[in-house]
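Quick question, first post here. What does this chain look like in 3D?
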Amino acid sequence: MSSVRRFSPLLLAPVAALSLSACGLNSVPAAQEEAKAKWADVQTQYQRRADLIPNLVNTVKGFATQEKSVLVEVTEARAKATSIQISAADLQDPAKVKAFSDAQAQLGKSIGRLMVASERYPELKSSQNFMALQSQLEGTENRIAIARRDYNESVRAYNTLIRTFPDAIGAKVFHGAQPMAPFEASAAAANAPTVSF
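> Answer (accepted):
Ran it through. Tokens below.
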């Protein structure tokens, strides 16, 4: 008689489940979905800014007809920024994330020029509508910064998860996981805007 015992598949199932649980079967998709949700927050804040811009432009138009070129620039930058869409699937393509980031940076720069132009019109600065819109834009810019920070933290956690043992095994074998691109500031963001009168 042989002393070798046969193991029942039912006895092996819990062992297999425990070994697979440490391979990123659930943690990788959960981290990926978290990063996608944070990206949606970034897009929501950019959309909020884009929605506020027409109101700001129209308020300034009433006071600053000489600054038509700045108003046109803001309107065109907004159109370009809202035309570049990026889906959750595109988050693994650094070029697409950069194109989105660059368009948003250009819009921010145009808004800055519009705010500088508004300084030339004291009656505009004292307008309640303008002050309210300016406050809303400042709040939106803060929300954008926080949303980008939260997104980058989620991407960092996801990218670390898919590269570390044992989750890296499940990430490659079961999910075909690819790193996500973090949101990076454009090169122009390193320079402070110039204000001149």
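The longest helix spans residues 27-63.
Residues 42-147 form a domain with the de novo design (two linked rop proteins) fold (CATH 1.20.1440.20).
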